[in-house]
UniProtKB/TrEMBL annotation:
The chain crosses the membrane at residues 23-43, 49-70, 82-104, 110-131, 143-161, 167-191, 203-220. The keyword Transmembrane helix applies. It holds the Pfam family DUF2914. It comes from Polaribacter glomeratus. This is DUF2914 domain-containing protein. Coiled coil: none annotated.
Length: 371
């Protein structure tokens, strides 16, 4: 055993990590994010599910074994040989999970009111770069672990059950809460350092506070309804359905406005309807009622007024999303938006535009795309 430990310490990998110790966490952070960006596709794809389940399991094991390093009873064990690599493993798996969440949660046309939760994900993602400096702080370890654990189950259960609603979200939170408490208790009982560094009640309180915070985000509709995602949202002049395809006619924006396809200023030259086309990704066999909530901004009252609410049921499985549209006649000039929402009023995204009735001869330059 001693020979193998000496050999490992003199290995090229260990010497490289020792030499570049300052930059190793950043390299593992970039590696985890880059790997996910190139390999993750559909959230319901078997490869993606296996990868995320593997990350979650290995993160759990890495945290558990890391907390056993230094135990007197385990000095000559596997942990002494590989213990130095566990902080990097934790960072890689935590970075892999958070980067995957950022990728999945960012696939809506507009983050709108859900941007706050997305920002938290991004902060956790970049904070992971400095995780190694805080790895000795067990409160930080388990709080970060619980956050990614809850997020994991919040979309993993709907994938497995082919259904998503408030009850399933609450069950996801309960499972993640129980599983994290079990890990904390197991570490506390088997780790000498944990019993010294952790005040058990304080740890449980911090984790439960995160649990309540995430539920508050859900209650106030601030969490994107992953695994659903708004793939496309366009305000259009006309929509025709032919041979199973949607012919969408709309005005494109300037080339440098890369985050939006349609032009935000919608010019009406007649009393024709205004259309909004959306395509929504949903996992295979998942059925869900979706609504287009039309809203008009009242400048006098400085508030959004609800107009039409048009619903349709989507069925998951199509690569480019389930297509649907709504339209409105006799619209007023001014600022409009169409919120794409679920039964629980969770926002998938927002299609915003400004309507102005024009009397000019020149008409907008329109294109027609097939979806």
């Amino acid at each position: 055993m001693k020979r193998s430990i000496v050999k490992l310490k003199k290995s090229r990998v260990n010497l490289f990590l020792k030499k570049h110790k300052k930059y190793a966490p950043l390299l593992f952070f970039i590696a985890g994010f880059t790997w996910d960006s190139f390999t993750l596709g559909r959230i319901d794809r078997l490869y993606d599910i296996v990868i995320l389940c593997t990350y979650m399991c290995l993160l759990t094991l890495s945290i558990y074994f890391f907390n056993l390093v230094g135990n007197k009873k385990r000095r000559n064990s596997f942990l002494k040989k590989y213990g130095n690599y566990l902080p990097l493993a934790i960072q890689f798996f935590l970075g892999g999970l958070t980067s995957a969440y950022v990728i999945y949660f960012s696939r809506s046309v507009s983050l709108s009111k859900t941007a706050s939760f997305f920002v938290i994900l991004v902060i956790v993602l970049f904070a992971n770069e400095f995780f190694k400096k805080r790895i000795s702080n067990k409160y930080f370890q388990f709080c970060a672990y619980y956050f990614v654990n809850f997020t994991f189950f919040s979309f993993f259960l709907p994938l497995m059950l082919k259904e998503m609603n408030t009850t399933i979200f609450l069950i996801s939170g309960a499972i993640s809460l129980v599983s994290t408490f079990i890990l904390v208790t197991l570490v506390y009982r088997t780790s000498d350092s944990a019993r010294v560094e952790i005040v058990k009640r304080k740890m449980m309180f911090m984790i439960f506070a995160i649990y309540l915070s995430i539920n508050m985000f859900y209650y106030f509709k601030l969490i994107p309804p992953v695994p659903l995602a708004l793939d496309k949202g366009v305000v259009a002049y006309n929509i025709d359905v032919k041979n199973g395809y949607y012919e969408v006619t709309y005005e494109v924006d300037d080339w440098y406005v890369f985050w939006r396809d349609h032009k935000i200023n919608f010019s009406r030259y007649s009393n024709k309807p205004v259309y909004v086309f959306t395509s929504i990704f949903a996992p295979t066999d998942l059925k869900k009622k979706i609504y287009h909530q039309w809203k008009w901004y009242n400048n006098e009252l400085e508030t959004w007024e609800n107009s039409d609410k048009i619903g349709f049921e989507i069925i998951g499985g199509r690569d480019n999303g389930y297509r649907g549209y709504s339209y409105k006649e006799n619209v007023k000039d001014g600022e409009w938006k169409v919120e794409v929402i679920t039964d629980e009023d969770l926002v998938l995204g927002v299609v915003d535009f400004n309507i102005s009735t024009q009397k000019a001869v020149l008409k907008p330059i329109l294109i027609t795309k097939m979806y």
